[in-house]
Amino acid sequence: MASASNWLRKNIVSRYVMKGCPEEQKCLEILEIILDQETTQQEKEEYFAHIDKCWTCFQNHNLEKNIKELIKSKIDNKPIPKDLILKIQAVIEKSTTS
């Protein structure tokens, strides 16, 4: 993974020149897939090669990654009561058959 110091050393000038990324939306979509661990190795390699050169996408990557890690750290892994599961399943079944 790219680190901020490596990126700054390689691209310090483009940080101030480049405004946005023409592929930002595509990168955000790929980022979600990467964070969900559902990408191919080739997609990962292409994505990380891109964020090594693109400050906008590098920032987006770090922000999304940090948000996901923060949320994950705040979630308690408590077991769900069986009766609650059954109630939810009943509501879903009722709404899909109506």
Structural overview:
The protein is mainly α and 98 residues long. It has one domain. Helices cover 74% and strands 0% of the residues. The protein has five helices and no strands. The chain has helices spanning 4-17, 24-35, 41-51, 55-74, 82-97. Helix 2 (24-35) runs parallel beside helix 4. The chain is elongated and about 50 Å long. The N and C termini lie far apart (49 Å). The model is unreliable at 13-18 (pLDDT under 50).
Lay out the secondary structure.
Elements: H1 4-17, H2 24-35, H3 41-51, H4 55-74, H5 82-97
Helix pairs in contact: 2-4
| Uncertain runs | 13-18
In terms of structural class, how would the helical and strand content be classed? mainly alpha
Instruction: Tally the structural domains.
Output: 1
Estimate the helix proportion, in percent: over 70%
Strand content: under 5%
Round the mean pLDDT to the nearest integer and report it: 80
Number of strands: 0
Overall form: elongated
Radius of gyration: 20 Å
Which sequence of SSEs, written as H and E, runs from N to C? HHHHH
Span from first to last CA? 49 Å
Tell me the quaternary state. single chain
Number of helices: 5
Q: How many strands, which pairing sense, and closed or not: the largest β-sheet?
A: none
Compact overview of the structure:
This protein has 98 residues and is mainly α. The chain has five helices and no strands.
Key phrases:
5 helices, mainly alpha, 98 residues, elongated, single chain, 74% helix
